[in-house]
Amino acid sequence: MTGGSGPVTLPRHVAIIMDGNGRWATQRGLPRVEGHRKGVEALRRTLKAAREIGIEIVTVYSFSSENWSRPPTEVSALMGLLKRFIRNDLAELHEAKVRVRIAGERNDLAPDIRALLTEAEALTAANTGQTLIVAFNYGSRQEIAAAARRLAEEVAAGRRDPASITPETLEAGLSTAGIPDPDLIIRTSGEMRLSNFMMWQAAYSELVFQPILWPDYGRDALMEALAEYARRERRYGGLSSAAGA
Ligand code: IPE
Ligand code: IPE
Ligand code: MG
């Protein structure tokens, strides 16, 4: 896929590990929750920029399966921010023809949040613009284990031959079924790890780590990440075009 002008290689699917809210707040002597609030503003800016640039699919990691281990006040603030984000921004996302999908374990979430997530998906299901995947209460190991469990149940019920299990059949049980793998995974705040994010889907993703803290993120930082992506050469185990015949 090429960009609007020039030979710019634009990723189809950009996934973002939005990290550094707490540090942003601490650096300013503010409570961590304030960083999360500013993080929602950064999310709005970044999603708008991604739509303008023409990114087809954006995934944002907003709460991990392991984030429950934070203090209850922080956890409940994050739940509140998700609710507020959906209530305030769903209409605008729908207006912009964004199709919203949620990845993650919903059964552990409060009924009002579950209802909002279902509403967001249902309202925007037929939209044909950008796809926005919100990874909330998401963990990649949990996701892979759930997909494996489903296949095991089919085998146990006599409905599946174990020999039929392939990467494709497992993939069909992931929350990203039908969505192309992320071409680019961005993590902010300088941390260089995946933290249980899309480990299956990241097999051939380009990883870009940016030192900027998430509340400061926006169009400029996204453009930098996209420029870095455009400089990468994806080989998928093959040979570089220069090394070829
Ligand atoms: C990312 O910011 C948001 C979530 C994990 C929910 P952090 O809260 O992890 O911020 P730091 O890493 O402590 O700075
Ligand atoms: C990963 O960030 C989760 C999200 C950004 C939502 P964390 O801040 O939770 O990750 P660790 O603990 O630094 O690995
Ligand atoms: Mg963090």
- Report the β-strand fraction as a percent range: 5-15%
Shape: globular
Please name the CATH topology. Answer: Undecaprenyl pyrophosphate synthetase
CATH superfamily: Decaprenyl diphosphate synthase-like
Largest sheet: 6 strands, parallel
Tell me the CATH architecture.
Answer: 3-Layer(aba) Sandwich
Radius of gyration: 19 Å
Low-confidence stretches: 1-7
CATH structural class: Alpha Beta
Share of helix, binned: 40-55%
Number of domains: 1
Can you count the beta strands? 6
Bound chemical compounds: 3-methylbut-3-enyl trihydrogen diphosphate, magnesium ion
- The chain-level mean pLDDT equals 96
Order of helices and strands: EHHEHEHEHHEEH
What do you see in this structure?
With 245 residues, the protein is an alpha/beta fold. The protein has a single domain, classed as Decaprenyl diphosphate synthase-like (Undecaprenyl pyrophosphate synthetase, 3-Layer(aba) Sandwich), CATH 3.40.1180.10. It has 7 helices and 6 strands; from the N terminus they run E-H-H-E-H-E-H-E-H-H-E-E-H. A 6-stranded parallel β-sheet has the order 3-4-2-1-5-6, with helices on both faces. The chain is globular and about 55 Å long. Residues 1-7 have low confidence and may be disordered. The structure holds 3-methylbut-3-enyl trihydrogen diphosphate (2 copies) and magnesium ion.
